[in-house]
Amino acid sequence: MRILLVTPPRGGEELLDRIQISAPPLGLAYIAAVLEQEGHKVKIFDAAVEGARHSDVALEVKRYKPDLVGITSTTPSIYSAYKVAEVVKQVDPGITTVIGGPHVTFTPIETLKECRHLDYVVIGEGEATIAELVGKLEKCEETSDVRGIAYRRGDTIRVNKPRPLIDLNKLPPPARHLLSMSSYTLLGKPVKAIHVMASRGCPFKCIFCSSSRLFGGVCRYRDVNAVLDEIEDCVYRYKTRNFAFVDDEFTLNMKWVLSFTKGLKERGLDIVYGCSSRVDTLNEEVLKGLKESGCKELYIGVESGSQETIKRIKKGIRLEIVPKAVRKAQALGIEVVATFMLGFPWETVDDMKKTVKFALKLNPDLAQFTLATPYPGTELYEYAKKNNLLLTRDWSQYTTLKPVMKGLHFTAKTLVRLFVDAYRKFYLRPTFIAKQLVKGRLSYLIRMVGKLLGVM
Question: Which is higher by pLDDT, 71 or 10?
Answer without folding.
Answer: 71
